[in-house]
Amino acid sequence: MGDPAQAHGLALEGLREEGEDPVLRYLAGVALLELDDPSGALEHLEQAVRLDPADPDCRVALARALFRLARFGDALRHAARALETHPELPEAHEVMALLLEREGKYAEADRHLARAARLDPESYPLPRRLPREAFEAQVKAAAARLPERFRRHLDEVVVTVEDLPSEDILTQEQPPLDPELLGLFVGVALPERSVFSAGGELPPRILLFQRNLERYATEPEALREEIAVTLYHELGHYLGLDEAELEAIDLG
Length: 252
Hints:
By secondary structure, this protein is mainly α. It has 13 helices and 3 strands; from the N terminus they run αααααααααβαββααα. Helix 5 (72-85) packs antiparallel against helix 6 (90-102) and helix 6 (90-102) runs antiparallel to helix 7.
């Protein structure tokens, strides 16, 4: 989709002029997903499925919106329905893989990712999975690349690798955080900490989500780079830097 904001506007204009249409509802919903508005997308995509329950693209897009909103059980139902009727739809396999991961069914999830990659290798490249020790070694190497002003603060933060963000983490905010997020800083940022901070605070943490990172960056060099960028970004949040300040620093 070239310009999702424009596509959304055109879809709404079509709905006003032509009345209800599942394709226009689908296009409006997909555009809102591209614009990072799964809540807005949900209404359009639910209506698209009501209008055309046999359309697998509508089902998959609805499953993706529900996934983004951490409604994993509902999303799984729609993804499974799409695969029942159209087992060669790569998008359905990819969404099903995301949902199976949430249930800890990693081998089954990777089989669906492999199927999506066979059906459409350009759009769905197969991730390369690393043993946890190898991934953590990449994190240590990434830490060594950070600018010195960042490196000297690493001992103040616990860096933990997890497979995926937990549902508790995702749903602490509304709307929920994106289940595909790559990393997260948890705790009180350094500029906000003081001798008057409440006792018993948990130490600040940076969480890196291995399976999301592996899916996001499927080539070894790209994965190394993304681990470094994510670590740097989350440590920047601990240091209280805003997005513009983070963008201005080159890891080299």
